[in-house]
Amino acid sequence: MLSTSIQSVAKQLKNSKISASELCDASLKQIEKTKSLNAFITVTSDVALKQAKESDQRFLNGMTRGDLDGIPIAIKDNFCTQGILTSCGSNMLSNFLPPYDATVVSRLRDAGTVMVGKCNLDEFAMGSGTVDSIYGPTKNIWGSNIPYDVTYKPNHKMSSSKPKVDPEDWRIAGGSSGGSAVAVASGSCFAALGSDTGGSTRNPAAYCGVVGFKPSYGLVSRHGLIPLVNSMDVPGIIARSVEDVTLVLNAIAGPDVNDSTTLKRKYEKVSLDEGVNLLGLRIGIPKEYQNTAIDAEIVDILKKTASIFKECGANVTEVSLPHTPYSITCYSVLNQCEVASNMARYDGLRFGIRGDVTISTEQLYAETRSRGFNEVVRSRILSGNYFLLKRNYEKYFVKALKVRRLIKNDFDSLWDSNFDILLTPTTLSHAPKISEFKQYDNQTQCVTQDYCTQPANMAGIPAITVPVGLSREGLPLGLQLMAPVFHENALLRTALWLQQAVNFPQLKLKV
C-alpha cells in the first residue's frame, strides 16, 4: 500500500478498499520501523490521525478534495507549521512554535493531505548531507542495515540487500532536504516538501533514488519558508514518481498575496496526459557540467540516456554554458551575504532561545547566537558580513551579482537558440559514505555537491532529477533536466517520458 503511486492509492481510497485512517496508521508504523534512519525531527501522530479521520468523513459524504485527499505527506522542518515545532534543525529555534502555517502547508491541508511529520535537515538548510542537524544525521535507506528488495516492473526481483553495513559508516542522504528524501524513499509517506536554494531538493533525491523537483522562482510561494537566500530559495517537491510530483505541484503553486515574489497571473495546472513529442525536441548537454571530479559511472549513464533520447527522435547536442565554472564561487558569495542578513533576526529578543547574559544588548546577541548557531552558520554569517563591508561591497557582492547575470544570460542564449531542455548530471557520484563525506568541511562539500544543481537557482529556472540507474555498488544514480522559466509543462512531460524509458527499480522494505 505504501509503495504504490498517489493516483493508485487514491483510487483505493475512493473505492473504499482502504480508509485514510488505515493509510495514516500504516505510514506512522513505517516511520517507527525506519526511525534508525532519523528522517523525522517531529512525528505529528495526533495531527495526522485527526486529519485522516476528517478525510474519512469526506469520503463517506462524497465530498473529497481530489487525488491528494487522505494522502500522507511530510514537511521539511524549515516550513512554518502552526503550533508545531519548526526548528530548522537548530538549537536557535528548538522552542519555536509558529503562530501560522506556511502557504504551501495550508494549501496541502486544503487539498486534504495528512501531515505525518516534520523532516530533518542540515541546520538552517546550510549543507549538502543532512549531517549538521542538532537532532543528529539522517542516514540513506539505500545501503543501510534495514533489509529491502530491489525490484523492476512487473515485480521481477533484481536483488535483496544483505545488511552487512558498518553502523558507523553509513551512506549519506544528501542535503539539506535529506530527511524529506529518506521519508519518501523509505515509504514513510508518498511525498514531502523540501526547500531548494542550490540543489537541496535535487541532491538528496538523486542519492535516495527518488524524484526531486525545483519549480521556477516565483511559481510557488515562499511565505512561511524560513529564509536562507531569499533570491534563490524555492519550495521543492520530493516523491517517488513524476506523476506524484505533478499532483503536489498543482496543489501548492500559484499567486500568494503574502509573497510579493510570486507570479501574479493565475496558475494553469500542469497536465501530463498529452505526453511529449520527442521528434524534433532539442536537448542540450552542457559540456561544463562534466568536470574533473565527476565519477565515470555518471558520465556513462549520461551518455546512455542521451542515446535513448536520440533513438526516439530527439535532437541531442553538446552545448556550452561558459560561465558555469564561476557559478559556484558566485553562489557562495551571494549565499553568505544573504545568510548574514537573514540571520540578523535571531537576536534573543523576539523568538527562539535567549541568552542569559543581559547586561548589554551586544552581550545578549553574542551569547544567544553563540549558543543557538553551530559553527557552519556562524562562519557563513562572518563571511557574509565581511563581503558586505563598505570596503568590500563592490569587490565581492556587486561583482557576484554581475556574474550571476552572465550565468542567467548563458541559459537565455540557449533558450533563444531554440533548445527546449538541458540534460545534465545531478550529482558527481552516488551517495558517499559518511567517512568519505567528512574528509572535507561543510563549505568544500557544498561547493562539490552543488556543482551541477545551483546554476538553476541562480537563473531561477525549473529543474528536476530523475533516478535512471544503479551504480556497480547498487546505489541510485540520477540525472537532471532543466527548462526555461515557467516551462514546467514541457519539463515534467519530458521527465515522465524519461522515467518510463529507464524503468528505474523500486525499493521495497522487508520490515
Please describe what this structure looks like:
By secondary structure, this protein is α/β, with parallel strands linked by helices. The protein has a domain at 6-257 and 461-509: Alpha-Beta Complex (Amidase signature (AS) enzymes), CATH 3.90.1300.10. It has helices at residues 6-14, 20-33, 45-61, 103-110, 178-185, 202-208, 242-252, 296-311, 324-342, 361-372, 375-387, 393-416, 434-437, 442-449, 454-459, 488-502, and strands at 40-43, 72-76, 114-119, 148-152, 156-160, 191-196, 211-214, 234-239, 282-286, 315-319, 421-425, 463-470, 476-482, 506-509. The strands form two sheets. Strands 1-3-2-6-8-7-12-13-11-9-10 form an eleven-stranded mixed β-sheet, with helices on both faces. A three-stranded antiparallel β-sheet has the order 5-4-14, with no helix packed on it. Strand 2, helix 4 (103-110) and strand 3 (114-119) form a beta-alpha-beta unit. It starts with 5 loop residues before the first helix and ends with a strand.
In short:
The protein has 511 residues and is an alpha/beta fold. It is built from 16 helices and 14 strands.
> What would CATH call the architecture of the domain at 6-257 and 461-509?
Alpha-Beta Complex
CATH class of the domain at 6-257 and 461-509, please? Alpha Beta
Report the β-strand fraction as a percent range. Answer: 5-15%
Give the uncertain stretches in residue-range form.
none
| Cross-sheet strand order for the largest sheet | 1-3-2-6-8-7-12-13-11-9-10
- Using the coordinates shown, work out and report the CATH topology of the domain at 6-257 and 461-509: Amidase signature (AS) enzymes
Estimate the global geometry from the Cα principal axes. globular
Structural class: alpha/beta
Return the string of H and E elements.
HHEHEHEEEHEHEEHEHEHHHHEHHHEEHE
Helix content: 25-40%
